[in-house]
Amino acid sequence: MSTLEIRDLHASVGKKKILHGVNLSISSGEVHAVMGPNGAGKSTLSAVVMGKTGYTVTSGSVLLDGVEMLGIPTWKRASAGLHLVMQYPTEVPGVMLNDVLSEALKGRGRDGDIARLDTLLKTEAGRIHFDEKFLDRPLNVDLSGGEKKRNETLQLSILKPLFVILDELDSGLDVDALRDCARRVMDATSEDSLGALVITHYSRLLTELRPSKIHILVKGQIVKTGGPELADVLERDGYAAFTPAEVAAEADAKDDPMGLNLFP
Ligand code: ADP
Ligand code: MG
Q: What is the pTM of this model?
């Protein structure tokens, strides 16, 4: 049983403070959703947890089984068991999918044999209805939005991380692809005890990826945590109901302590 714990995380981009003390803890096999409006800081949270450059963590911790992930390079976080499915997966011309996965597996001390990997890739591709012809492409190159997300889900199924952050898995996906990807992730939570942090602003995704907890992120803070029923409340009332005036005022004041309004 593993735990990913985000403790009082504050982060900025340039002079703009984006995360204002995020607390969240997730264990193996659990699915938690982070929901929030555009610009709430959801992608920033995923970027900071994975160590993407350009973000400054001003305080807080990201602990994987008690080990601090902040300050160590992204590849080490990945080999420790963290994985991000990006909102907009990157195309990497010239780099083949099976080579990437083979190296990643070897880097984790696992079997990276290409022939065995190719067999496994075909089996896993079948599970999510990802056309085998795409397996011979450079990473994500010339794939549609939906195919890219299927490709990312495929990598997840091979690498079997401890925790995955799915940043808007639903963006760019049609309903069939969404169902295939979401079901594969749900299967991994039971087959491999994968812990999944599902970032989305639509409750639609959560009918397939069923979270036990939903965290609502507004203006860089988790303003409410509850059970799956929170998604229905959001659907009905929108995010406005979860933006208490004091939270908005506090976030604005932290962004702009002298009231200069330099970064509106
Ligand atoms: P979400 O994913 O919830 O829509 P983001 O984390 O992408 O939100 O963005 C939160 C805020 O931080 C937005 O106001 C966005 O413009 C700003 N932001 C995020 N990344 C950057 C960046 N690299 N440079 C400048 N501003 C950024
Ligand atoms: Mg985002």
A: 0.91
